[in-house]
Specification:
Chains A, B: Its cofactor is Mg(2+); Mn(2+). Chains A, B: Its EC number is 1.1.1.85. Chains A, B: This is 3-isopropylmalate dehydrogenase. The structure is a homodimer. Chain A is an alpha/beta fold. Chain A is built from eleven helices and twelve strands. In chain A, the strands form two sheets. Chain A has a ten-stranded mixed beta sheet, with helices on both faces. In chain A, strands 6-7 form a two-stranded antiparallel sheet. The two termini of chain A are 23 Å apart. The interface between A and B is large, with 67 and 67 residues. Bound molecules: 3-isopropylmalic acid (2 copies).
């Protein structure tokens, strides 16, 4: 009999609330013969305050044993900016070589968007997850003086760019429209830009049925709000991907609905799935958080582990629920229950 | 008698068409006793193809003599990406130390926006113009091989950050709402992020009447489309500013309306004013280009040179024209004429 061994990291703020609903729906979606085993980990602000630890080598070894990781959200105003981001979230992405940061945006019927009219939004962003300006490379000299110089180094390798570009081409090829847009800023960041552009053009030859396009990142933000229908699959660098996926989430119904996967396609390490939103401490513990993004993240998780039918069932349940949601103000629990019922039914 | 000595760079594509209208309106706005002297320079794709030059040392010396520069647009598909951007536009910004890249966004009545409802948009972005990832620092090794490593170095100095942050605080203080938002990514780009944040907080002490806020750049893109009213003045790094000002232009009526100033507040070098849009070669020479962004750029130019009344008159003329524009399809010339008449009357 089959089984899924899942590491669960509820985290801070609304993290535990949304993760509980994610697990509820995930369980409801699984076939009877699949055994779901979960283990909770206590990473986040509380553990940091108690022990000073964000993620130890032992933690990494422990997490390595799981098939996948479900993460709620990490972060709290009581922890200095950057400590948990770099000490936990980015550390995991780098150590588990999550080079495909997958972020779908789809605006279904009934979902409100800040855009006028009825925009047609159905694209995925493949954000590189292990390079670019996120490597922590850089430093500062004469720190704190009027002569300080601080640098940040974006590191880009042919190895790192090629694997994510190839992954994005394969994803584009598997979609009906088969279109892939590279987003970069190659007219200014020309060293990294040439690397990305050359590799993109080279890999394109292996995918002759995929239509390709290129946009500077600044222009891409314009088209996200004026012509979102022009996007099918987008591949981009770590920082550009961070920026444009928040914008994409905003136009596609808000970050309350945005799922993401930090994926190592080789499965050498467990992949991690998380809502794009943060820990939202202002509404934590009130049953107000929308668990939809976490539920959609469990669909990405199931798809990654090969449960395509179950993943699609969760996504359909969410679409159906969203279409009927209107202005109703259900609690976190109620939304989770409704989704679990739909998925099981 | 007073005079303005203006260097005019029509450039490529629609550049010459929109610049002609900009000059028309600028002349109409000036008091009788101010003598406007203009000299055209032929920078751009044509000159590059003819001579291989983008901007020589002699060119820079020549331009240095002027009170200000009015630029249309530079760029053509026949020139490899990056050549004119770095060889001309960025070179001028760096050589003339244009550390304040000023980009106002205002959505007036009658102007259509991709956002739903009636968003309230009236803010300015002060984008740093001489540092960050734009310095051209970086390189590549094993170029073109499967082992290539390409880097881009963002260079940030206390000197460079403090002067632009101070300028932004002063601009915020001069506006009714007196609010300044720093946009960065200090949870990830922590060396540059700390420098920006520390200087921002330090300079804030000198401006106790200015309300301050901080947003990560990814979150800022969300609020640009969901709550643009939360912004008054924004200060940010060169690359983040590039990205968010295109988005800002898109929501505030399109880049056809977005003006910008590349300003050296010390007046040690001439400042340069240009529409945010590019050369749009696809519609060049057809009288279809909207000259409004260039006209608004001349208002920024006049304000920089101390002609506040005339600058405001141009801005009012544009607002009034936009409010009545509707779906009318006037030519470049007709829009310029209409604005000139309003400004003169
Ligand atoms: C929290 C932060 C480090 C993170 C990032 O910048 O990648 C977040 O914004 C995201 O997009 O997952
Ligand atoms: C053309 C390009 C170099 C430029 C920039 O990146 O600054 C443009 O996008 C702008 O915003 O003025």
């Amino acid at each position: 009999s089959r089984s899924i061994n899942l590491a669960v990291i509820p985290g801070d703020g609304i993290g535990p609330e949304v993760v509980a609903q994610g697990l509820k729906v995930l369980s409801a979606a699984l076939p009877q013969d699949v055994k779901l085993e979960t283990k909770e980990f206590d990473f986040g602000a509380k553990r940091y305050h108690a022990t000073g630890e964000t993620l130890t080598e032992d933690d990494i070894k422990a997490l390595e044993q799981y098939d996948a990781i479900l993460l709620g959200a990490i972060g709290d105003p009581s922890v200095p900016s950057g400590v948990l981001e770099r000490g936990f979230l980015l550390k995991l992405r780098f150590r588990f070589d999550h080079y495909v940061n997958l972020r779908p945006s789809k605006l279904g019927p009934g979902v409100s968007t800040p855009l006028a009219g009825e925009p047609d939004i159905d694209f995925i962003v493949v954000r590189e997850g292990t390079e670019g300006p996120y490597t922590g490379n850089g430093g500062s000299v004469r720190t704190g003086t009027p002569h300080e110089v601080a640098t940040e180094v974006s590191v880009n390798t042919a190895y790192g760019v090629e694997r994510v570009v190839r992954d994005a081409f394969a994803r584009a090829q598997a979609r009906p429209r088969k279109k892939l847009t590279l987003v970069h800023k190659n007219n200014v960041l020309s060293y990294a830009g040439h690397l990305w552009t050359n590799i993109f053009n080279k890999v394109a030859e292996e995918f002759p049925d995929v239509t390709t396009d290129y946009l500077h990142v600044d222009a891409a933000t314009i088209f996200f709000v004026t012509q979102p229908e022009r996007f099918d699959v987008v591949v981009t660098d770590n920082l550009f991907g961070d920026i444009i996926t928040d914008l994409a989430a905003a136009v596609a119904g808000g970050i309350g609905l945005a799922a993401s996967g930090n994926i190592n396609p080789s499965r050498a390490f467990p992949s991690m799935f998380e809502p794009v939103h943060g820990s939202a401490p202002d509404i934590a513990g009130q049953g107000k958080a929308d668990p939809t993004a976490t539920v959609l993240s469990t669909a990405l998780l199931l798809r990654h582990l090969g449960y395509e039918t179950e993943a699609a069932r969760i996504e359909e349940a969410v679409s159906a629920d969203l279409a009927e949601r209107g202005e109703s103000t259900r609690s976190t629990d109620q939304i989770g229950d409704a989704l679990a019922v739909r998925v099981a039914g």
